[in-house]
Design a protein that fits this description.
Blueprint lengths: L9 E14 L4 E16 L4 E5 L6 H8 L7 E6 L2 E2 L5 H8 L2 E4 L3 H4 L6 H11 L5 H14 L16 H13 L5 E5 L7 H18 L2 E6 L2 H7 L2 E6 L2 E7 H6 L4 H8 L6 H6 L40 E4 L2 E3 L8
Parallel strand pairs: 3-8, 3-9, 6-7, 7-8
Antiparallel strand pairs: 1-2, 1-4, 4-5, 9-10, 10-12, 11-12
Helix pairs in contact: 4-5, 4-6, 5-6
Length: about 325
């Protein structure tokens, strides 16, 4: 997706996560939930990859697989050329500090019994910065970096607003000077006015520190604002991937077109003339195996081969890949 940079920071190939389903009196395994079902992409240093899709499509599971908070069923994750999915947890420890995460709900992701100082300094303590004075100076530096008053050092999470709590989470993620941060819907639990502040902060930090983001969200407007590349995910698979400008100006996959048609445009004249794409049909279960396109049951332009022929991402124009055989290559 980026011909100017030959070596991606993160390379994901064929990543899958299937959860077993146990039923009955003896809890026998009856089937699998295919939460992530063969995802591949590259993420280059200093850029932001936005991952969008409706709730339950596997975005957060994918994030946890990349960080090895979950072990994959199949596939490979490479970080700076190292296959982190195949090494022991002891060996992975040296890589972990370069891959951090900001969670969706800052209220749930911060320990209510710990002060701000303890929360932000915990990664420093775990990774060997044992001098308490040095840790405190680093915490104060991080608080200033994310716009928190150093006077709040001894306060607890419940004493802060949602936006301030998310700033604490960002400071904690920055503590070990990571190269990549996974942002798992970091603004979806915040008020709209606060969302813009956090997005601006993330952009400023990226420019200042050279950070790389995997930014997960279901809000298409938010993703457009912050992303260089956008990947659209549906039922555990990426169905379209392109630069942000190309994807929003010329969506090719029927699912992406339907998603974008639901985003309101702040121009009443254009909004009145615009055609809304309403999806019909049942949402398929992630427990079912789909030999063809997983979107076939809801697609408005489906044909017979869609239900039986596997759909893989292919390049239809430069830096624009779509998993749909109906899209013609130009």
């Amino acid at each position: 997706m980026n011909p100017e940079k030959s070596s991606p920071l993160l390379r994901v190939r064929g990543l899958k996560k299937h959860f077993p389903v146990h039923e009955g009196l003896f809890r026998r395994q009856t089937e699998w939930v295919r939460a992530v079902d063969g995802v591949s992409f590259d993420l280059y240093s200093g850029t932001t990859l936005g991952l969008v899709g409706e709730s339950g499509c596997g975005k957060s599971t994918l994030a946890r697989l990349i960080l090895r908070l979950l072990e994959p069923t199949e596939g490979q994750v490479e970080f700076e050329g190292v296959d982190v999915s195949g090494v022991s947890m002891r060996e992975f420890r040296s890589v972990r500090k370069d891959m951090q995460i900001v969670f969706q709900d800052p209220h749930a992701s911060l320990d209510p019994r710990m002060t701000v100082e303890s929360i932000i300094s915990e990664p420093l303590r775990i990774f060997g910065l044992n001098q308490r004075k040095e840790r405190r100076w680093r915490v104060l530096e991080l608080m200033d970096l994310v716009g928190l008053d150093p006077a709040f050092l001894k306060r607890y999470p419940h004493e802060f607003s949602g936006g301030q709590r998310q700033r604490i989470g960002i400071a904690r993620a920055l503590a070990l000077e990571p190269k990549m941060i996974v942002c798992d819907e970091p603004v979806s639990a915040l008020d709209v006015s606060i969302q813009s502040q956090i997005l601006n902060l993330l952009e400023e930090l990226q420019e200042r520190l050279g950070l790389t983001y995997l930014f997960i969200a279901h809000d298409l407007a938010v993703v457009r604002h912050i992303s260089d590349i956008v990947a659209v995910m549906y039922l555990g698979r990426i169905v379209e991937m392109a630069t942000a400008s190309k994807l929003y100006e010329s969506p090719q996959h029927p699912y992406t077109q339907a998603l974008l048609s639901a985003v309101p445009i702040p121009d009443p004249e254009i909004e009145r003339k615009r055609k809304r794409i309403l999806l019909e049909g049942a949402l398929p279960s992630p427990r079912q195996f789909h030999p063809g396109c997983s979107f076939a049951s809801r697609c408005p332009v489906v044909d017979a081969s869609c239900r039986s022929t596997p759909q893989t991402l292919r390049e239809v124009t430069e830096s624009h890949r779509v998993a749909c055989h109906l899209v013609k290559t130009s």
